[in-house]
Amino acid sequence: MNEADTRAELIDPQLKLAGWGDISESRVQREYNINAGEIKAGGIRSSQMKADYVLVYKNRKLAVIEAKSNEIEVDFGAFKEDALVRINPAQIAKRGEVPKNGSVFFTIFQTFMSGAEGKPYFGDYEPDFFDFVIIDECHRGGANDESNWRDILNYFSPAVHLGLTATPKRIDNADTYKYFGEPVYKYSLKEGIQDGFLTPFKVKRIQTTMDEYVYTPDDEVLEGEVEEGYVYTEKDFNKKIVIPERERRRVQEMLANINQQEKTLVFCANQAHAAMVREIINQEVKFKKTDYCVRVTANDGAIGDTYLKQFQDNDKTIPTIITTSQKLTTGVDARNVRNVVLMRPVNSMIEFKQIIGRGTRLFEGKHYFTIVDFVNAYHLFSDAEWDGEPIEPEPKLTKKPKEPEGEEGGGSGEGEGGDDEPPVKKIKIRLSDGKAREIQSMRSTMFYVDGKPISAEEFLQRLFNTLKLPEFFGTEDTLRKLWANPITRSELLKKLEQQGCGKSDLIKLQEMIDADNCDLFDVLEYISYARKPITRAERVANAQSNIYTFLNEKQRDFIDFVLKNYVQDGVDELDIKNLSSILASKYGSPYDGQKALGSIAEIQSVFIDFQQHLYNEKVA
Questions:
Q1: Which of 555, 547, 553, 551 lies closest to 598, judged by CA?
Q2: How far is CA 37 from CA 46, 84, 193, 503, in A?
Q3: Is the Cβ–Cβ distance between 28 and 15 less than 8 Å?
Q4: Domain range annotation of the chain
Q5: Which residue of 260, 291, 469, 550 has the fewest C-beta atoms within 10 A of its own C-beta?
Q6: Nearest CA-CA partner of 50 in 198, 195, 185, 200
Q7: Which residue, among 137, 205, 145, 127, has the nearest Cα to 167 in the 3D structure?
């Protein structure tokens, strides 16, 4: 029996019999796209995966059905109205008993361990009450032999136990594998990106000449005692030694390398460092808005939680940047995070994966996110553990495990970045004026493709091979000639769209190669012919004398107006279709524009001809 017969003769009748589509708020979606396809270079999507059926109840997608075989009987019944139950201490106290009337129960370890007179609530259920126990975030300690919560798992031993985790541990906390055994299913970050469920990313690595520091007498010691001759490195900064000028330079570099209106998470060395970086960002940013950058750490309490909720709200733009230490490495579902900034060393692969995960959430229009790396964490991408198997555990001393935080804590259960340790007297240095002004930086960009980081050059080569643009254009001179005329440029963009590379894709590529202030022509030249982009302002400055040579005063005034808009807003300002609105914007109406410049034919001629000079080869 083929799949079509299976659907028609076996599955459809069973779904109908079970009430799907008839029961209130139940729906059956057929040939459903379960992913949008991998986000390729420039935001272009690859082929999508489809499901034969998706069962939806109360707007929740509960099951996927694939028509493959008629040999297995499946119960397709929908959940009843009261099937989903949350085990809540307040409700238990109000009712005087634990809830038992349901099919799927939700709780946290802390709730199950609490109870009146020291008697845990989980004991109010029979050991065989549950058939299936799912432990989310199972790496946090519940599987450890010494954990109090292991009692819960042992008590419900008749049930099947399924452990879920995005960051399996073998060393730092519970030996998850020892309890659950080898994973029955693995799904890597690479697969998640390839299937279109996670957002790809690029890495901007920034180094400065102040990544190491040795004291010299021309620097001023403001606090503490500096050790002469000692080389202070990344692990020491903001824990042993504080150099405000260094942090300000890093913030300036960060702001120069991100879109300052995009939501950004900054991971700092500790809470004091997070406060310092917050203050510097608010001083240096272009947009002076209240709560533009805020700190959210363990000590920020209710106001920190409020800031986080506002940050997670995709309809709100403030706060735009959050500085933190450890609190936000896990438990943060902020889908529109576009930048993750590392201003402190990352101590483990577990933590690294957790931090990277803050940016992988999908969001409309989010085609990639950027990791800004000040601490050389990019080396971890080359580690065998990055997208492979966790290493075998090393022998370690037995110690009391840390208990995971509650469901509202949103923490990783690993403390707040050393903030609970005894305070250490820090050294504070003011750099000499000359040394502060001489701090330099070096930048490089990498893209994460097919499970590994590649250089910008290799990324562009892959893009070059995928799009095959030179074959489409022919020569570089041909591309320049087509682009320099607004009529042939429009035709070229239509043909590119037919080939799967539309204007919106070019704009995404423009963002990815950090060419936001350049012309889309530069994007095409860069990809096709490896020609370095120039900004629109540079293009205008280089061509201005040639453009104005044959224009009268009124024409110069008009073209100057057009070029200013071009520099600010891009190549759409040069589209012949926008000429009437440009005239209306400049003169009040197209008619008044004609009184100043002549006939429509004359204006069109000037508008088209000056663009030949703008894209002249000498400019590039």
A1: 555
A2: 5, 32, 9, 20
A3: yes
A4: 3-65, 200-390+412-444, 468-620
A5: 550
A6: 195
A7: 137
Contacts for 122-127: CB closer than 8 Å, 24+ residues apart: 122/152, 122/155, 122/156, 123/155, 124/97, 124/98, 125/98, 125/100, 125/156, 127/155, 127/156, 127/157, 127/158
CA distances to 164, 177, 178, 257 from 184, rounded to whole Å, are 11, 11, 14, 42
Cα-Cα-Cα-Cα dihedral sign, residues 577, 488, 42, 340: negative
Q: What is the pLDDT of residues 327-343, one digit of tens each?
A: 776 667 788 888 889 88
Give the architecture-level CATH label for domain 200-390+412-444.
Answer: 3-Layer(aba) Sandwich (3.40)
- Distance (Å, rounded) from C-alpha 14 to C-alpha 592? 71
Of 3.40.50.720, 3.40.50.300, 2.60.200.40, 3.90.1570.30, which CATH number belongs to 3-65?
3.90.1570.30
DSSP 228: T
> 482 φ, ψ to 5°?
-65, -40
Residues with Cβ within 8 Å of residue 301, at least 6 apart in sequence? none
List CB contacts of 596: < 8 A, sequence separation 6 or more. 554, 558, 587
Closest CA relative to residue 193, chosen from 366, 351, 53 = 366
Answer yes or no: are the C-beta atoms of 411 and 225 closer than 8 Å. Answer: no
| Residues of the chain below pLDDT 50 | 42, 72, 74, 142-143, 145, 173, 389-422, 619-620
Nearest to 343 by CA among 469, 436, 206, 470: 206
Cis peptide before 390 (omega within 30 of 0): no
Q: Rg of the Cα trace of the chain?
A: 30
Spatial separation of the C-alpha atoms in residues 251 and 258, rounded to whole Å? 11
The single-letter DSSP state of residue 610 is H
Tens-place pLDDT, residues 597-616: 889 888 889 888 898 888 88
- Would the pTM of this model clear 0.90, i.e. be above it? no
Query: What letters, b where the CB count within 10 A reaches 16 and e where it falls short, cover 380-419?
Result: bbeeeebbeebeeeeeeeeeebbbbbeeeebbbbbebbeb
